[in-house]
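Q: Hi! First time doing this. I have a protein sequence and I read that you can turn it into a structure. Is that right? Here it is:
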Amino acid sequence: MNEDYVCDPAWAAFGIGPKSSITPEDEVLIDYRYSLRRIDSLVRTADGEELIVEGKSELVVAKPPALAEGQTRLANIVVDFHSDGKSNVQVLPLAETAAEAQTASTPGRLPKATAKIRAGQPLTIVCWGDSVTCGGDATPGNRYPEVLEKMLKEKFPDAPIAVNVIAIGGSNSRQWLYPGDDQFKGQFDRIVAAKPDVVTIEFVNDFYGLGDPKDFDPTYEEILKRFRAIDAEIVLITPHFVHGMPRDHDNRPYVANLKRFAEKHDLALADASARWAHLWREGLPYITLLANNWNHPDDRGHRLFAEELIKCFEP
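A: Yes, that's right. Below is the predicted 3D structure, encoded as structure tokens:
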């Protein structure tokens, strides 16, 4: 290794090394092994018998198995990569339902938008953000801006509502605010040109550089100033969980900053993070909702964003 070939074990990537005798044009055959992830369920049947129903093995996004009529799911059993399925498994009892999740999402903080909806007037929403807002690895039609639009139109059928996505994968908010001579130059103007009534803001990438209030506050004060200048209301979205976090709480200072800032300025908050922190109590390891096993939610994860966002449109 590092001569004939180079390898990145963490990302399962490799290539030609500096002293290799092969070229990019050569055909190469490679043998490798990989492991899959599975979620089984402990269930109780209608006659009181308890048994384990095996789930389907998947590369990343394992899901609990479907149950037969009369069966009740008691716990999920996570058979993770390289597990023998016996001793090194994770058992997650179904302690609570999704409906019991407590979040800090805020109704009543979009007065102009809700007034327009009640009056049946057109409402334009811009979803601003990074690769997650772009859709990431979710399937078309199940990305959170699309799901939000469907929910809003179902809830308020008499109001013409348009949801537009203006986002760039891999970006953070500061790149949009203070672009150099690169792909971000003029990008913020696209949001202004859309004439939004509401802007939702999702930047999981901001947690890398905006944990300290002295960095966070000037950035988000600038965001607030710019959107108030165009009379747009905003919704701050707390980000989803990413690889390597605790399962039951969000320890990112950036998330605390978002909540503090929203409270200080009476801004709408869609607390998706709290939903992810509750997943383990629903019997789901949050990592199984990451389609790339790192930072892109699957369809279920995108729906969590929409479910918290829709709360903000309550009066």
